[in-house]
Structures are given as structure tokens and as C-alpha cells.
Automatic annotation (TrEMBL):
UniProt keyword list: ATP-binding, DNA-binding, Helicase, Hydrolase, Isomerase, Metal-binding, Nucleotide-binding
Protein name (database record): ATP-dependent DNA helicase RecQ
UniProt GO cellular component terms: bacterial nucleoid; cytoplasm; replisome
Species, as recorded: Muriicola jejuensis
Domain Helicase ATP-binding: 29-202
GO BP term (any one): DNA replication
Entire protein: shown range: 1 to 523 of 734
Molecular function as annotated in GO: 3'-5' DNA helicase activity; ATP binding; DNA binding; four-way junction helicase activity; hydrolase activity; metal ion binding
Length: 523
């Protein structure tokens, strides 16, 4: 099936009332209509839903949309109600919330060709009776929303997402697949493609840069609560979200804000659903300015004018941080993202993870190290985040280049070309087998069991960098990673490798201006 541009525009207007496509939408939609496998990576708010909704309406048969949350499905289906002349609409859900007669009705509508989009949870798709039914009807394609749930390296791993491919194969031959996600580091991206078996999929990736967001990290001291209250009071009448790790802190801080005359509500999974909806609505309807919440708050929240997102505690990964801060400035206006950081919080999170299975712990720790590096970095925070998502950013001329604390108050720089060569030589000399910790120890001449077992402490380069403290070398490694001289193999939990650029630098050293890193005083 091929549609020309005018036909596409007309359908866009007819079904959704929009006059132009947003970003990459049009190209994605054409690719899906042509029946190709497609992979879409767009930040939240980028307009992913339309990428499968419009093709579903235009193509023959029913499109299956796999979505992780019943609440999200319901929102989408409700939103689609309005676009149909049929009273029941063109979209339905098939999940555990339906009773028998509702299920029967949905199946009837699919058979009659009324249903163009069928939203299902992965669990419902695995049920034999549903598979048998779907085998008997025409499926136009399968869209997998929140596709990062496939990967253990994503921020929201769901094991049932890993079984989708064999089920899709059972539904029929050559059913096109479209995977969509708002977060995908190169690693997660690779997992998705492999697991869904869509190596041939055309990738559509929008930039993750949010130029209107201002990123800032402040040291977390014992006065953090008053620091936050002061910030909120300086921004009267503005909408803000404050994330805390624990429910107890959520309640405490909400109360403190109220006592200080700020209209605030708490939100966490410990409240019953009625209370949660009430507080959420109060925030959405602007009855209150601030919501103090755990990460239970926010999925599917689309309040355009959130002016700040504060993190009382460090989040567990850069992806989570990007998602949570992404709720600020949706309308393109101001959005201040302020995180309070103390290494003690990191230790708390590590302890928290220590009860989990080993593989999960290792992944968790590797992700945590990345957010620590973000918090401690002195380079452009935007560059750091975008690099994490596999995107280059020009910190001088890029859009939003001056929108972070490090860009506004640049730290001093120093020449470190000579040190970089030393670092590269140590990584080479240790055969690219070590993580940062062992590399730094080798540089400063301090041993541990792993170093000793590889007999590294007898090598000529052992201690070759002892003119600098370990913090200096940690900072240099972080900056060499972002500059592209080193690469970290996340699958190997952080083992450092030298890139082609790094090899060239080692052969032909030049200058490398390193930003003096900032070591926090905690109390
Ligand atoms: P995502 O799933 O990527 O977070 P959504 O699909 O929810 O994004 O879309 C975000 C918002 O953009 C929605 O309010 C949607 O109605 C709007 N939108 C999507 N496509 C267009 C378009 N072509 N023109 C105008 N608004 C659009």
C-alpha cells in the first residue's frame, strides 16, 4: 500500500485534526504503511502514538498495540474514541480488566473489521485462547510501545516483554513490527532489535536534546530540605514536581512545604487509588502548585507547564533522570531540573540493591555509576546526557548550550594531553581488561587482589601517574569517555576500551583541555 503526500495530509487532518506532521512522523508512517519493520526512538511528547495510529486506520485489518500499563491503554483508547463515526470507536483494549461479555464484544468488533487498533498487555497476548482468536483475523502490524521494557539495561525491564517475538510469529506470517520507545541507549537499542528480530528495521531516531531545560546539580547537605523550600518559595505560583526516594520523605517534605505556606500534595504508591487520583487531579487542575512524589508519579502525566523538577535524592540511572526531568517544560517554556547529590545516597541505593540477584545488582551498579559521573561532571551536562544516549552535542554552538550550571559557571581547565597518554598506555598495558577503579589504582601505584593476580604491580607503568590523586584520574577517565577517546563496555559492567580516536591520540599526542573536576564537600 502506498499513499501520496496529499492523501496522508488529508487523513491526518480528517482523523486527528492536525495540519502538519511533527518531526519524523511522516517518514515513519510511510515506512509502516509500506509494511516494513520500523524502529522509532523519540523523546516523550515527540508524537510516537500517531506513528502507528494513523497507519492502523489506513491499513486493512487490525493493528495490535502492545503496551505495558492498563491505565496507559485506557487513555489512548479514550483519546481515539472521538475520531470514529462508529459509536464504540475504532480502538479497543483486550486485557484482564474486561469481563467475559466485554471480551466477546471486542472479538466481534475485530471480526467485523470495526476495530483498527487493539491494545493488549503482553500477558494477554500470551494466552492461548487469544492467540488462537487472533490467528483467525487479519493483523495489519504489531506495534510495541515502550519497547525498552524488553531490555534489562532499560529503566523498566519487564520479563514478559521478552517473549513477544515467538507469539507474533504464531499470529501469522511476515507481520510487520514497529517498536517504539522514548529511551534507548545504544545498548538498549541493540537489545530491542535483537530480541524482536528486526535487524532489518529502519531506524527513526529523533534528537533527545531538550534545549529549554536547565540542568543543575547542587551538593546535598543536611540542609537540603530548607534549600528546596527556599527554591520553591522563590518560584511562587509555578508548577513543580519534587521527587524523593522514600514515601516517608515525600510526606515529610510535603508537610514542611505546607507549613511554609506552599500549596503542595504528597503522592506515592502507599496511598489508595482514590487519594492518588485526587492529588494528581489537584496538581493537573492547578489547585496546588507542587507535588512531592516518589517515582510512582508521572507515567502518562502530560502537564505542559511544569516549571521545575527537583530530585531530593539521586535517581537510579541517567535514563530515569532524563524521563523524570522530561516532565518539565513540555510547552517549550522554562524547565529547571535541579538534583541534589551526595555520595551517601549512592551508598544507600547500593545497599538497597544488595538483596537482589547478582546480575540485577551488577546492572544496577553500572547504571548508578553513570548517574554518579553525571552528578560529578564539570563538563556540559547536556553533552553528558546526550552522549549517554549515543548523540553528539556541540557544547559551544549546540541548541541549549548555555543551559546548565557547568556551562554558566565554567570550571577552570588545564592541559592534560600528557596525562591522557599515560592513561591510554595503562589501559593498553593492562590489555583492556579493567574497569576505572583498577586503572586508577594502577596509575597511582596502589594494588588490590585483582591487580596482583594479573601481576600488574610489577609492570613499568604501575604508579606512572602518582603525581596526581585518584580523583584527578577518575575525572580524566570520565572526560576521555565523553570526548570519545575511550569506550566503556556496559555489557562487561564498565570495562574500559580505547577507541580509534584514542589510538590516534596515543600515537600522535596533542593537547587535551581537561575541566578541573569538582569534588564535593559533603557537610
Ligand atoms: P509520545 O507518545 O511520543 O510521548 P504522544 O503521541 O503522546 O507522544 O504525543 C504528544 C502530543 O503531541 C500529544 O498531545 C499529541 O496530540 C500531539 N501531537 C502528535 N502529533 C501531532 C501533530 N502532527 N501535530 C500536532 N500535535 C501532535
Amino acid at each position: 500500500m502506498v499513499l501520496n503526500d496529499t492523501e496522508l495530509q488529508t487523513s491526518l487532518k480528517k482523523y486527528f485534526g492536525f495540519t502538519t506532521f511533527k518531526g519524523l512522523q511522516e517518514d515513519v508512517i510511510k515506512n509502516v504503511i509500506e509494511g516494513n519493520n520500523t524502529f522509532v526512538i523519540m523523546p516523550t511528547g515527540g508524537g510516537k502514538s500517531l506513528c502507528y495510529q494513523l497507519p492502523a486506520l489506513l491499513k486493512e485489518g487490525t493493528a495490535i498495540v502492545v503496551s505495558p500499563l492498563i491505565a496507559l491503554m485506557k487513555n489512548q483508547v479514550d483519546a481515539l474514541r472521538g475520531i470514529s463515526t462508529n459509536e464504540d470507536g475504532v480502538a479497543h483494549v483486550l486485557n484482564s480488566s474486561l469481563n467475559k461479555s466485554e471480551v466477546k464484544q471486542v472479538k466481534q468488533d475485530i471480526k467485523e473489521g470495526v476495530t483498527k487498533l487493539l491494545y493488549v498487555a503482553p500477558e494477554s497476548l500470551t494466552k492461548d485462547e487469544n492467540v488462537a482468536f487472533l490467528q483467525s483475523v487479519k493483523i495489519s502490524f504489531v506495534a510495541i510501545d515502550e519497547a525498552h521494557c524488553i531490555s534489562e539495561w532499560g529503566h523498566d525491564f519487564r520479563p514478559e516483554y521478552r517473549n513477544l517475538r515467538p507469539i507474533i510469529d504464531r499470529l501469522g506470517e511476515d507481520i510487520p513490527i514497529i517498536g517504539l520507545t522514548a529511551t534507548a541507549t545504544p545498548k538498549v537499542q541493540e537489545d530491542i532489535v535483537k530480541n524482536l528480530g528486526i535487524q532489518d528495521a529502519k531506524l527513526f531516531k529523533a534528537s533527545f536534546n531538550r534545549p529549554n531545560l536547565f540542568y543543575e546539580v547542587r551538593p546535598k547537605t543536611k540542609n537540603v530540605d530548607s534549600d528546596i523550600i527556599r527554591f520553591v518559595k522563590k518560584n511562587p505560583g509555578k508548577s513543580g514536581i519534587i521527587y524523593c526516594l522514600s514515601r516517608k520523605k515525600v510526606e515529610e517534605l510535603a508537610q514542611m512545604l505546607q507549613v511554609n505556606g506552599v500549596s503542595a500534595v504528597p503522592y506515592h504508591a502507599g496511598f489508595d487509588s482514590k487519594t492518588r487520583s485526587k492529588y494528581q487531579d489537584m496538581f493537573l487542575m492547578e489547585d496546588v502548585d507542587v507535588v512531592v512524589a516518589t517515582i510512582a508519579f508521572g507515567m502518562g502525566i502530560d502537564k505542559p507547564d511544569v516549571r521545575y523538577v527537583i530530585h531530593h535524592d539521586i535517581p537510579k540511572s541517567i535514563e530515569s533522570y532524563y524521563q523524570e526531568t522530561g516532565r518539565a517544560g513540555r510547552d517549550g517554556g522554562e524547565g529547571h531540573c535541579l538534583a541534589f547529590y551526595s555520595y551517601r545516597d549512592v551508598e544507600k541505593l547500593e545497599k538497597f540493591m544488595s538483596g537482589k540477584p547478582v546480575a540485577e545488582q551488577e546492572i544496577g551498579n553500572a547504571l548508578l555509576q553513570e548517574i554518579v559521573a553525571y552528578a560529578e561532571t564539570s563538563i556540559s551536562r547536556r553533552k553528558f546526557i546526550l552522549h549517554y544516549f549515543g548523540e553528539e552535542f556541540d557544547e559551544v554552538n549546540g541548541e541549549g548550550a548555555d543551559m546548565d550550571d557547568n556551562a554558566r559557571n565554567p570550571k577552570e581547565k588545564e592541559e592534560a594531553g600528557h596525562s591522557l597518554v599515560k592513561l591510554l598506555k595503562v589501559i593498553e598495558g593492562t590489555k583492556e581488561k579493567f574497569r576505572s577503579k583498577e586503572i586508577v589504582k594502577t596509575l597511582i601505584g596502589s594494588t588490590n587482589a585483582l591487580i596482583a593476580s594479573h601481576k600488574i604491580d610489577g609492570k613499568a607503568f604501575f604508579g606512572s601517574g602518582n603525581e596526581h590523586p585518584k580523583e584527578y584520574w577518575m575525572a580524566l577517565i570520565r572526560q576521555a569517555l565523553v570526548a570519545g577517546f575511550l569506550r566503556k563496555e556496559i555489557e562487561q559492567y564498565g570495562i574500559l576500551h580505547i577507541t580509534e580516536e584514542g589510538k590516534k591520540f596515543k600515537e600522535n599526542p596533542s593537547t587535551f583541555m581537561m575541566t578541573k573536576d569538582h569534588v564535593y564537600n559533603e557537610e
